[in-house]
Amino acid sequence: AQSVAQPEDQVNVAEGNPLTVKCTYSVSGNPYLFWYVQYPNRGLQFLLKYITGDNLVKGSYGFEAEFNKSQTSFHLKKPSALVSDSALYFCAVRVYSNSGYALNFGKGTSLLVTP
Amino acid sequence: NAGVTQTPKFQVLKTGQSMTLQCAQDMNHEYMSWYRQDPGMGLRLIHYSVGAGITDQGEVPNGYNVSRSTTEDFPLRLLSAAPSQTSVYFCASSGRLNQPQHFGDGTRLSIL
Description:
The structure holds two protein chains of two kinds. Chain A is mainly beta. Chain A has strands spanning 3-5, 10-14, 19-21, 24-26, 33-38, 44-50, 56-58, 64-68, 73-78, 87-97, 100-105, 109-114. In chain A, the strands form three sheets. In chain A, strands 2, 5, 6, 10, 11 and 12 form a six-stranded mixed sheet that branches. The model of chain A has no long low-confidence stretch (mean pLDDT 94). By secondary structure, chain B is mostly beta strands. In chain B, β4 and β5 form a beta hairpin. The chains are: A mainly beta, B mainly beta. The interface between A and B is medium-sized, with 28 and 33 residues.
C-alpha cells in the first residue's frame, strides 16, 4: 500500500528562521508526492507536488520540498518562516486505480511560528 | 466560481439514523474523493471515483456508500450512523491525473 509518515506532531520555529517539516514515504513503483496546508476550520490547500524531474520542487508561498530517493523522504522547507505560516501541514502520496485517483495522507504536522 | 461545495456544514445525528453528505463541483472534474479527518489521524480516504458509475474503496470504506451518477455530484451516504463516524468529512475533486485536488470546506458531523 502507498503510505507516508510524518514523524513530528509539532514543529516550533522562530519567525525568520528556516523551517523543515519531515515526510517519509513507502510506495510500490514511482512515488507521486504532495504537500498540503490546512488553516483552522478550512479545507486543505495545495502547496506543491513531486511527480518526476528535479529533486527540488518549488511551490506556493515560498515553500519548497526536496525529494530524496535513497532516504525515501520528501521534506517541506522554507528559508524564512512567517508567523502566518502557522498551520497544519500534510504530506500525501497518490493512490491510483482504474476507478480513480486520490491521496493517502500522513497524520499531519502542526507548525507554530513564533514572533 | 464555487469550486467544491459541501452541504450541510454541520449536522448532528442520533445513532442508527441515516443521512447523505452532499458534494458538488462545478469545474467538470473527473476525479472526486471523500476523506474523513480525525484528531491525530490525519485525513483518511473513504471512497473515490473517476467518473459516473465508477467508484472504488479507500482505506476506511466500512459504513459508507457512494454513487456517482453525474460528473458534478458525489454524495456520501451513512446508512446507519455510529458514534465512531463522528468526524469532519472533506470532499475533493481534480481535473486530471496528478493535478492538485481541490477541497471543500468540510462537513462537521456529530453522532450521539
